[in-house]
Amino acid sequence: MLSLFAPPRIRRAKSINADRIKPFSISGSVEGHLEGMAESQNQSQHGMWSSGALFVLAAVGSAVGLGNIWKFPYITGENGGGAFLLVYLICICLIGFPVMMAEIMLGKQGRMSPINSVLKLAHENNRSSKWSLIGWAGMVGGIIILSFYAVIAGWISAYIYQLFSGAFQGADGGATGEAFKKFTDSPAQVLLWFTLFMAVTIFVVARGVNKGLEIAIRICMPLIFVLLLVMLVYGILQGGFWDGFKYMFHVDFSKLKLNGLLVAMGHAFFTLSIGMGAIMAYGAYMPQRESVKSAVSVIVIVDTLVALVAGLAIFSIVYAHGMSPSDGPGLLFVTAPVAFGNLPLGSIFGGLFFLFVAFAAFTSAISLTEPAIAYFVEEMNARRWVVALVIGAITWVLGVGSVFSFNLWSDFQPIFGWTIFDIFDKLTQWFFLPLGGLAIAVFVGFFLPWQKVWDYLEIKSQWARYVWVALISVVAPISILVVFALTIVQHFAGG
Ligand code: PFF
């Protein structure tokens, strides 16, 4: 009979639960390619990436997603271009970089779900178990993010079909704008594509982060880059490049509102997948000899480059076709079809472009579920597919609220004029992720011994050690607090 619980060999996970603070207890592996791996103190019960390079690719897969290609261009457009970009880049360097190092390090040392990894390190260092709240908040945040992320990924999936079918041939900005509105106005269509995307995500997650996924990441990431370049070249040829370039890189602080700081900081967390345990969960499966600092450098650079190329491509098209850079969440759906609809073989390239964006979304979506799945597999000893189905069902129910935010319930705006989609989006990016990041920085910066952290991170030179301590315990936490303080002043004191 089909059992909902793991077979005896994997059940040894329970012993992790009982004495989870003993260093690196190990039970069976759920990953096919890990079968037979010798038990060692540096392995996770959920499996390990098969190489350091694959860890980096998987983390890049988590980081590069809708945040870079769909979100970054439109929030840059809404927040005034160059000045916003500058603040965003500063947040990436001063906050994103150190917090990502800290988060991956916690996973790599803990080798368990984020909740249990933090708990284990807290116990080992005689700190309060309450630090595991970092993992709890991340787990809840991940499910909320996935619930609206999968709705947008559903739009992308619908566009794969539309582009391949040649629906946008010869279209201009007006036509693509109308088509987008018609699509999102239809609750049935949006629900259908959202459900399909969720089903595929949960199906793959349920099977484990296996070689199929690793191969998909390897093929898709370079192709996304190539197709973004195709869009960029199109924008250049159409003559919109310089205007797009100026819009993105011309820094004019009068265009930046105070709220733009919070948006930039929230997005730095979102785009790097930090502050909620996703990258910590991936760090738990990272090979022991892979260096955290070099991995983080690659992830941050690739993620930023993809966002910049996407932004340049989209703003070039915006200017070439007289559209508006502040078109909100629909920006990508209005601009990309214009580019591909007017290129030779555009339907094929356009369909492929949306296909790869869907893959990028997919490789991010699976990382959003990993903290919760790993935790419940550890705690309840349930089979991975059972946990995945339950998490998937909860996420789907939450997601329906975002599906209807664009049509049936668009007038339901319980606070600040925000729809359910806006509430989930802003709640997670403005609060959950930065506060999660703050807690991670404070935990690592103040509650773990510096020497241990330097050793874990293999930071050898004395000056680099102090730079690290300054970043994680002073610069990152204070910057996060200052941005919060300014936003609160603006909102509540009318400042
Ligand atoms: N970094 C992803 C993106 O830019 O699309 C989104 C994301 C994935 C956010 C995983 C948070 C996360 F934990």
Task: Please provide a brief summary of the model.
With 495 residues, the chain is mainly alpha-helical.
Q: What string, H for helix and E for strand, traces the elements in order?
A: HHHHHHHHHHHHHHHHHHHH
Radius of gyration: 22 Å
Helix content: over 70%
* Major sheet size, sense and barrel closure: none
- What percent of residues are in strands? under 5%
**How would you name the oligomeric state of the polypeptide chains in this document?**
single chain
> Which outline best applies?
globular
Average pLDDT taken over every residue: 86
Structural class: mainly alpha
State the low-pLDDT regions, or none. 8-40
Count of separate DSSP helical elements: 20
Question: How would you describe this structure to a colleague?
Answer:
There is one protein chain. This protein has 495 residues and is an all-alpha fold. It has helices at residues 8-11, 13-18, 52-63, 66-78, 82-110, 114-124, 133-164, 173-184, 187-206, 211-237, 241-249, 258-272, 278-283, 292-320, 331-341, 346-380, 384-404, 420-446, 450-457, 462-492. 72% of the residues lie in helices and 0% in strands. It is globular, with a radius of gyration of 22 Å.
List the helices and strands and how they pair.
Layout: H1 8-11, H2 13-18, H3 52-63, H4 66-78, H5 82-110, H6 114-124, H7 133-164, H8 173-184, H9 187-206, H10 211-237, H11 241-249, H12 258-272, H13 278-283, H14 292-320, H15 331-341, H16 346-380, H17 384-404, H18 420-446, H19 450-457, H20 462-492
Helix pairs in contact: 3-10, 3-14, 3-16, 4-12, 4-14, 5-6, 5-11, 5-12, 5-14, 5-18, 5-20, 6-7, 7-9, 7-16, 7-17, 7-18, 8-15, 9-16, 9-17, 10-14, 10-16, 11-14, 12-18, 12-20, 15-16, 16-17, 17-18, 18-20
Bound molecules: 4-fluoro-L-phenylalanine.
